[in-house]
Amino acid sequence: MRVSARVDYAVRALIQLAADETRMPVKAEHLATSQDIPPKFLLEILRQLKQKRLLVSRRGPEGGYVLARPAGEISIADVIRAVEGPLATVRDVSPANLAYEGPTESLPTVWLAVRGSLRQVLETVTLEDVRSGNLPKHVLTTASKYGVEERP
User: Fold this and answer.
1) Would you give the end-to-end CA distance of the chain in angstroms?
2) Is the Cβ–Cβ distance between 75 and 101 less than 8 Å?
3) Which residues contact 65 (CB under 8 A, 6 or more apart)?
4) N or C: which end of the chain has fewer CB within 10 A?
């Protein structure tokens, strides 16, 4: 899986928002500065997140953005889907709808397994998990297999 700048910025902005939020709106400029995200690009991302109902915006001098739901109810998968669509497609087709012939006949099963693996992580990790550093055990275990140490 390739994590685009759009996804990286969206996730980082929402985690920053979760960390800063006291149910008071947070300005886009603050999010951009805090996470070193280009402001114009961030505004477009925030618009998408608002359209997908992950954010609520408030106008005026005391305005800004707040999460539409608690950070513990917004998964990383929710954010990815909001800014880029489905987690895993092959040529913009769901792996479940692919059919190959001959020696590649079983390849759709591999693509389905990839999608399932992504879901196991991205649908179970919330903004709050990342903000607090309390990642699910299965994520830490998987990460440790690839050189990231588990925390006690």
Assistant:
1) 28
2) no
3) 17, 25, 26, 27, 28, 31, 46, 50, 55, 56, 57, 58
4) C
pLDDT at position 94: 83
- Please report whether residue 149 resides in a domain: no
Domain assignment present for 140: yes
Tell me the mean pLDDT in the region 71-97: 91
Count of the separate structural domains present in the chain:
1
Q: 150 in a domain, yes or no?
A: no
**For the domain that residue 119 is a member of, what is the CATH number?**
1.10.10.10
Backbone angles phi, psi at 94, to 5 degrees: -60, 135
Does residue 149 register a pLDDT over 80?
no
Cβ atoms of 122 and 80 closer than 8 Å: yes
The range of the structural domain enclosing residue 88 comes to: 5-144
